[in-house]
Structure formats: C-alpha cells, structure tokens
Amino acid sequence: MGKQLRVDPTACAGHGLCAELAPELVSLDEWGYPIMPDRPVPRALERTARRAVTDCPALALALTRVP
Amino acid sequence: MTDSLTLPGPFPAPVPAAGDPMAAQFGGLHRLLPASGAVPVDLRAHLDRYGALPRPDGPGRIIAEVEAAGLTGRGGAAFPTYRKLAAAANGDQAPVVAGNGAEGEPASSKDRSLLWISPHLVLDGLQVAAQATGSRSALLYVPRRRQLHQRLTEVIAERAAVGMDTARVELREAPDRFLAGEESALASRLADRPALPSYRPVRGLPRTGPGRPVLVQNVETLAHLALIARYGAGWFRAAGTADEPGSMLATLHLADGQRSVVEVPIGIPLAGLLGFGGQLPLPPGRAGGGGDGLITSAAGPVQAVLVGGYHSAWLPAAQAARLPLANAALRPLGAFIGAGVVAALPADRCGIAETARVARYLALESAGQCGPCFNGLPRMAAALGHLAGPRPDPWARADLDRWAGLVTGRGACHHPDGSVRFIGSALRVFAAEAGLHERGRCSGTNPQPFLPLPGGQPLDDTDWS
Asked: Ranked by mean pLDDT, which of B18-32, B79-93, B447-461 comes out on top?
C-alpha cells in the first residue's frame, strides 16, 4: 500500500511550486505544468509530497492511497 | 440478409432496400432504420413493425439480458452497457437517464439520422433504461437543430398523450462542440453549467454537480436496448461477431465524396463496405498511404481509410482492405470502431494536409482547462500545418513526437489522448508523404478538403452552453 501524488489538471494553473518544493518527485514540462511521478511516493518523501499538496496555490494536488 | 437477421414478430419483413441499392450489395441490416429509406417512422408505423414494449419483469431481468446480449456503448467507448445499468440501478439514488445524441464528431451523422428517422426506438430505449434503474426522469440531449427539436418535441408529446411512458422525458440542447457529449460535460450541462469535462479521479457515474447521478447512454445504444427488451439476447447476437455482437450504424464517406449512414453487422469486411476492388501500383513520384499502393473502389482509387473518427486512426488502404470493422482487429493497429465513422481518403488528396486541417479544429476544441492539452494541441496543429506546407521546418516531425509524449495521459478527459492518436497515425501512414514535403514536394493534386469540419461561422472559443 503506497501513496500516489496526483494533480487535477483542470485546477492546475501552472504556478510550478510543486516542482520547487518536491523536485525529487515533480518536474515541469516546457509550458510550466507539472509532470507527476507515475510510481507511488517513497516513504522517505511523503513529508515533501504533503508539503507540495498543502502549498499548491490552486489546491490542485492530492496524495491518495493506492492499493 | 439471412433469415436470422430479420426482425421477428407479426409485421411484414423489411422489403429489400429500394432506395438503398448499396445495402443489398454489402449485406446491410435494417434493425434500427427502415428499409424504405430516410422517411421518418411515426408512432403507428413503429408499433406496427416492432410491437409495444413488453412490460418490465423486474429491473434485474433486463440487465441480465443486456449482459447476455453483449451490447456495448455505440457512442465511441464501447463500454459494456449492462455495467453502467447495474451501477445506476445499485446507486445511492435513482439516476437521471440521459440519451446522448450530442454527436460532436463532425464526420458522424448516424445519431442525428437515427433520431430523425426512428425516434421512437430511442425513446423506447430511454424508458427501458429508466425502468431498469428505477428512474422516473429522462432526457434527450440533442444538438441545436430547429427541425430536429421540433420533431422530437412532437414525438415526446404524442407519447405522453397516450400514456405509454413511465419516465417523463425532457429535451435538452447540446452545444455544437466536439466534447459536448463527453459524459461529465453532459452532466455539467444538466446542472446549467457550461458543457465542460470534469476531472474524475474516481470512476463511476457522473453527477450533476454534487447532485444526482446521471446514466448517460448514446442514443443508438438505447435503440438497441429497445430491441433487446423485445426480442432478447439470442436475437441480438444473430448479427455481429461472438466477441462484439450486434449491428451498428456507420457513417460512410466514399472516395467520390458521397456520404451515407448505413446499418451493418459488427465485423463486416471494410473492403465490402467501401466497395474495394484490387490493388493499384502508386504512380511514379506519388506517396500514398503506407506506401503499399492504392486500392481501387467503385468511387475511385483510395490511399487510406480513417476508421472511428477524429480520435481514432488512419490505416493504409491496402491494410484496411484486409480488415473487418471490429475492435478486435482494429485495436492492435491503434484504431477502433469509435462512433462508426469510415472514410476512404481518395488518392488525389494529401493525407498530411487533411490531418493538419482536422488537427487545427481539434486544438480549438480543447476545453482549455488542462495545461498540457491547451498548450500542446495548438503547437502540434501548427507543426502539422507547417509539415503540410511547401517548406516545413526540418524539426517539425521531431517536435510532434516530443509533444505527443508530453500531452498524452495528462488531461481530465480523453481529448488530448485521442487527438494525439489521430495525429500520430497520420505521421505513420503518411510518412512517405511527409518526407516528400520535407523535400519541397506534395503528391496531392486536389486541394478540395475531404474530411468534414463544422463549417460556416468561425469557431467561438467561449460558447459551451
């Protein structure tokens, strides 16, 4: 059981904070929109991921459980 | 047509297609549309031919029958219909049942033809779906066409007057947008908000905002449902293949520009459907689809076939000539039946230019909600436009490949994925043509657009209502 970082693409406005706060997890495409990791977030990075979720100005990120 | 494929019941067998010489030729069917052509079927003729709907014997029975029939959604996704019915029947509250006739696909006209010619079958299906899911409210979601609305209003009123429907049926307008029929966009429209797709991380029926679940079924799917309720799964399966049973409506675009809506069993050979003959070598200096030469047809030589619509894929004509119209054969090649569009691109057109026109349309039809789609599709359309022109950038194809990877899978709906699939298929099938363009040549000799796009007024970027 892991956790996955997901973005609601309709809410994301491309601020790019997530890539600054969690560069190990998120990179930006050439237009400034985040590319999410396709694998569950490693336990050691869960705090970082949660920070990206709470600080997203558009509230577009979520850390969800995956089976 | 074999006996098992004709409709059972106390009505005259469909007469051989008088106004429809092609139907007999390629084995067309007349389950949904009458053999007599495009004359609308009124309530009396409808009941004479099909009889009244049987009384429902419990919601579970019909859902089991639909499962046994193997009916799948005819709007494009081919999702098993019984699974949606079961989800709606077992939900926390009764759904609104929506007959989806938005048909945003510009190359498709089968839903509008069905609604015009056989509206009672669709409305019967709407009642069957409502009964199966314990719903008393239903609606038809139909493009803004005055005549069609007028006729459907009359038909709905006529049925209400004789008291044949248990669920009340409303008529709702679909905006003229490619994505208007996407099911979350439809649900949004029902809540009087713009018809925009929404992000739904958890699968399930869409809802009107926080409100009621909406059971969305394509209007053709509903018409099949009306016949399964009458004649059962065995009858339904007498047409089609074991894995993809039943018949389907297809919108044909022949190489001479003729368009028609036909009903065919799933699995019918594309060669027969398109009247294909033998193979022709490519004339010197020409680059037809796939480089495998041209296929002759009664409507002229064909270089490539678009199956499914603008979210599906091109196939070289020589390859299409060996394929049935079935997802089992098409999916491994990146195409699918989709909404039933089958278009034979004539030899005298440029496949890159045709795709570039459509790509531009698809880019403008992005709802603009998701960054990768909003940014990526216009760039891809522009690059393809350059590639279609006389002196394309040498890096246009590399750009297109990179953007395809960046756009795919990153939208709330399937629009970016489908558009990239369509563009990618053109870059494969018309690779030789793209190479010609890079050397400053083009083998197209006829600049007349072939694939249809909504014409007339410029696209308004903001109207989603």
From this structure: B79-93
Looking at the domain assignment, is residue B7 inside a domain? no
> Domain range holding B269?
248-346
Categorize the per-residue pLDDT at B9 as very low, low, confident or very high, splitting at 50, 70 and 90: very low
**Residue contacts between A and B (CB atoms, under 8 Å):** 41
Q: Flag if B199 and A33 touch (Cβ within 8 Å).
A: no
Residue B318 is assigned to a structural domain of this protein = yes
Task: Write down the pTM of the prediction.
Answer: 0.92
Cβ atoms of residues B208 and B187 within 8 Å: yes
For residue B465, what are the contacts with CB-CB under 8 A and spacing of at least 6?
A: B175, B189, B194, B195
**Region of B408 on the Ramachandran plot (φ > 0 left; ψ -120 to 50 alpha; else beta):** beta
Q: Where are the domains of chain A?
A: 2-66
Is a pLDDT exceeding 50 seen at residue B7? no
Higher pLDDT, B285 or B417: B417
* Domain count within chain B: 3
Question: Do both B151 and B39 map to the same domain?
Answer: yes
**Nearest residue in chain A measured CA to CA from B406:** A29
Do B95 and B210 lie in a common domain?
yes
Best of B366, B370, B414, B415 to mutate (most A CBs within 10 Å, chain A): B370
Q: Does B307 touch chain A (CB under 8 A)?
A: no
Residues B203 and B75 in one domain: yes
Find chain B residues with C-beta within 8 A of A13's C-beta.
371
pLDDT (0 to 100) of residue B324: 98
CATH of domain A2-66: 3.30.70.20
Q: How high is the ipTM of this complex?
A: 0.93
Query: Between B110-117 and B219-237, two packed helices, what is the crossing angle to 10 degrees?
Result: 80
In whole angstroms, give the CA distance from residue A9 to residue A12: 5
- Average pLDDT of the residues in B140-150: 93
pLDDT at position B285 over 80: no
